[in-house]
């Protein structure tokens, strides 16, 4: 088992928008794997028509790569949710360094955050640690009224060898791609008709 030297940092690069090219250090942690540059480039090409002024939610934020990229590309707001104090401290520092007033950090589990908050988020990023079956409970909670804006977009990243878990029936897959050990998909959430 390899160990990370004490005080070591890793780095991510913002790849588009107003902070394009900015390199941000984050504290390494077991299981932390920021979404790679090529995957983020593809994802944000998919999101380009919808990202401006969007309200975003970065569940299982980790390094904050997805939410920071969204803010850089014109999202108006992003909630970063994670249980790691060190990870959220890094994200808070990045938000301050970049003068990003639209970012807000929440140290809480994804499930508890969704139980306690209403948001009408336009775009949600679900990129949990692989192999822990965390996508299904997050999706179930997001399906409750008052959390997603009409026609919200939900991004899900999983390990390539993981099958996609059951999702709400009104989540329609819009895009899908795999690279390396990662599969990633974008869903459009259709409004649920009131009966």
Automatic annotation (TrEMBL):
EC number: 2.1.1.171
Catalytic activity: guanosine(966) in 16S rRNA + S-adenosyl-L-methionine = N(2)-methylguanosine(966) in 16S rRNA + S-adenosyl-L-homocysteine + H(+)
Keyword terms: Methyltransferase, rRNA processing, S-adenosyl-L-methionine, Transferase
Pfam family, one: Cons_hypoth95
InterPro entries in UniProt: DNA_methylase_N6_adenine_CS, RNA_MeTrfase_RsmD, SAM-dependent_MTases_sf
A GO molecular function held by the record: 16S rRNA (guanine(966)-N(2))-methyltransferase activity
Superkingdom: Bacteria
NCBIfam families linked: 16S rRNA (guanine(966)-N(2))-methyltransferase RsmD
Functional summary from the UniProt entry: Specifically methylates the guanine in position 966 of 16S rRNA in the assembled 30S particle.
The family this protein is said to belong to: Belongs to the methyltransferase superfamily. RsmD family.
Protein name: Ribosomal RNA small subunit methyltransferase D
Native source species: Halioglobus maricola
Name of the encoding gene: rsmD
